[in-house]
């Protein structure tokens, strides 16, 4: 079974996720937002305490709050960074504005591999499927675990809200369309682990989200 552990890092209160297979102890680190040394230490201490072996470094998308810890994770566990190709320019833009947000020590990273819709990533005996859900960011993806009915949703869909679409590469109509076609077609009892705030479910958002 895949276990899901979340951490809330940086001033944007971004949710970083560690997914790990409780048999092989292989782990995926998704959207590492750890910037301050104590945040990096918290992430590393959890992984060491559990005896995990990180095998995947993934970004749902590459806005600054979701990539602040990429360099630390790459350096510490020697992992290639995987993103969707359409978010590469978003990633490369981060150093130009990081100091304006107070992140003067941000260390840039390059993507090492590209995620594609329909691709499956192995985590022990389990798989994460890639869903392409642009609108908040041009290369936004969601990681869907079919057997356990959960997804790591990034900033597409929140508990009672959706991701903002006023940033470069964002588009409101595109996001609404993709949530309807890619996420709302998942089972209602699918848990959505959001990039900010509490988790929710597909059924709850279909019924109560004011944007729908």
Automatic annotation (TrEMBL):
The keyword Signal does not apply. It comes from the Bacteria. Pfam families: Lactamase_B. GO terms for molecular function: hydrolase activity; metal ion binding. The keyword Lipid metabolism does not apply. Keywords: Hydrolase, Metal-binding, Zinc. Its cofactor is Zn(2+). Residues 13-196 form the Metallo-beta-lactamase domain. PANTHER family: HYDROXYACYLGLUTATHIONE HYDROLASE GLOC (PTHR46233). This is Metallo-beta-lactamase domain-containing protein. It comes from Cesiribacter andamanensis AMV16.
């Amino acid at each position: 079974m895949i276990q899901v552990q979340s951490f809330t890092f940086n001033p944007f209160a971004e949710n970083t996720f560690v997914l790990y297979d409780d048999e092989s102890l292989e782990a995926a680190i998704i959207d590492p937002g750890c910037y301050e040394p104590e945040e990096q230490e918290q992430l590393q201490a959890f992984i060491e305490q559990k005896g995990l072996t990180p095998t995947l470094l993934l970004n749902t998308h590459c806005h600054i709050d979701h990539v602040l810890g990429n360099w630390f994770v790459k350096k510490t566990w020697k992992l290639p960074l995987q993103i969707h190709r359409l978010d590469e320019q978003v990633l490369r833009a981060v150093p130009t504005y990081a100091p304006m947000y107070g992140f003067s020590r941000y260390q840039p990273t390059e993507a090492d591999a590209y995620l594609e819709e329909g691709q499956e990533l192995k985590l022990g005996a389990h798989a994460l499927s890639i869903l392409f859900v642009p609108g908040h960011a041009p290369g936004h993806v969601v990681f869907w675990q079919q057997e356990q009915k959960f997804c790591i949703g990034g900033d597409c869909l929140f508990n009672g809200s959706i991701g903002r679409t006023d940033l470069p590469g964002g588009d409101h109509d595109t996001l609404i369309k993709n949530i309807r076609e890619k996420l709302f077609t998942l089972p209602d009892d699918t848990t959505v682990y959001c990039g900010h705030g509490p988790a929710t479910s597909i059924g709850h958002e279909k019924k109560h989200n004011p944007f729908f």
